[in-house]
Design brief:
six-stranded mixed beta sheet; 2 domains; 12 helices; Dihydrodipicolinate Reductase, domain 2; 323 residues; 12 strands; Rossmann fold; single chain; alpha/beta; disordered C terminus; six-stranded parallel beta sheet
Length: 323
Amino acid sequence: MNFGLIGAAGYIAPRHMKAVKETNNDLIVSFDKNDSVGVLDSYFPKANFFTEFEQFDRHIEKLKNNDIKLDFVSICSPNQFHDAHIRSAFRWGANAICEKPVVLNPWNLDNLINMEKEMNKKVYNILQLRYHPSIIKLKEKIESESKNKKYDVDLTYITPRGNWYYSSWKGDINKSGGIATNIGIHFFDVLQWIFGDLKDNIVNLHTHDRASGYLEFSKARVRWFLSIDKNLLPKIKEINAYRSIKLNGEEIEFSNVFHDLHTKSYQEILNGNGYSLKDCINSIELAYKIRNLKPVGLKGNYHPLSNKPLTTHPFKINQNNEN
């Protein structure tokens, strides 16, 4: 099958290139406004590449005129462009494979679901944690035990980012959805997937470098903490990121097997078993609510890392140095 790729210079794009390659498909055209895409040589050196969307669009139309069709367009662009790029994929006659979050606002999902029906095309969302062996095992454990049992869960995810983050689209809450959406969306997805319907949602903190809160589901009480502050990484060993789920105090190991999950996602999509827009409704709605709730501060049953000192926003540091 023939693939197109939007967002070829981004952090996550190589995982999509690898997945296309490992599922024995061909990436024939790609786009990014930035031209640092030498990684293409490792996977698809013959793929056409454009830095202007209009040229990218024109090339795809030429391919169609020569009876070369795109079967899928993989979308790795900044979050605020996802729905527009999905609509473009439909217009080109292709299905879409989109990074999370598919959209930032729940009502945009309704529009895309309607378009799927009108154009007889599909949008598949990359919900790769649902394929992680430890997450699958945890879900099976919860389903095998009493329906009336409720678990206490601590979720911690620390993935350090440098000062570049704040100058990029990722540091703009209107473009990325902020910390909770940008790095937390796939965790919110699996929490609801495993523990059922949302009952309560409290946000303790939501700042430039961290977010934390309390969620109650049908089967769990969850304290969650997300951060890009490297100072919060555990000191026990050299690690680049820290992912932890504790269930009733017991650690669920799921730090490994992350890089191959995109390939697994693609395999399932190509077999007709990928996750649809309806599968991501709950996580999109939850992330939206978290983004718009007023933080209550350190009250109630908050995550223990929530009381760690905040770092100063780097833009404020620069302003102080200039004064």
